[in-house]
């Protein structure tokens, strides 16, 4: 099972992070440095939420210590967290690259203007 086999529910958080990141670029022409940190915290929070959501569903009478029940809701939350963390890493790299590019352009324009 690869990332492309994931259920659409598993892509909700990464999609929201990309939309928020693009919106920040469109409105402010910059992404503040707190965005990747906050997005990563949100992605990490998906793991305990998934554990709580999954444990609420396994209270089925057929679940015993010998027969363990498995909740797909927990997997959806965990998948959102994992894909969210990967998205945060990619967006952080893109943000740093864009900011370095912008800084280089400003530096080169100032340098050529002073000549």
In short:
About 70% of the residues lie in helices and about 0% in strands.
Structure description:
This protein has one domain (8-113). 72% of the residues lie in helices and 0% in strands. It has helices spanning 12-28, 34-57, 72-113. α1 runs parallel beside α3 (72-113) and α2 (34-57) runs antiparallel to α3. The longest helix is centred in the last third of the chain and has 42 residues, at 72-113. The chain is rod-shaped and about 80 Å long. The protein starts with 11 loop residues before the first helix and ends with a helix. The mean pLDDT is 80.
How is this fold's topology laid out?
Blueprint: H1 12-28, H2 34-57, H3 72-113
Keywords:
mainly alpha; rod-shaped; single chain; 3 helices; 115 residues
Q: What is the chain-wise order of helices and strands?
A: HHH
Largest sheet: none
Overall pLDDT? 80
Number of strands: 0
Strand-pairing-aware structural class: mainly alpha
Shape descriptor reads rod-shaped
- The helix tally amounts to 3
Task: Indicate how many domains the architecture comprises.
Answer: 1
Helix content: over 70%
Low-confidence stretches: none
The CA-CA distance between the termini, in Å, is 58 Å
Radius of gyration: 21 Å
Strand content: under 5%
């Amino acid at each position: 099972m690869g990332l492309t086999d994931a259920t659409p529910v598993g892509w909700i958080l990464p999609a929201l992070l990309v939309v928020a990141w693009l919106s920040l670029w469109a409105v402010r022409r910059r992404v503040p440095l707190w965005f990747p940190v906050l997005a990563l915290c949100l992605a990490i929070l998906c793991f305990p939420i998934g554990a709580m959501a999954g444990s609420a569903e396994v209270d089925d009478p057929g679940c015993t210590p010998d027969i363990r029940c498995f909740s797909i809701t927990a997997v959806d939350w965990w998948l959102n967290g994992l894909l969210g963390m990967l998205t945060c890493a990619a967006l952080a790299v893109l943000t740093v690259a864009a900011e370095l590019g912008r800084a280089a352009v400003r530096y080169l324009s100032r340098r050529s203007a002073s000549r």
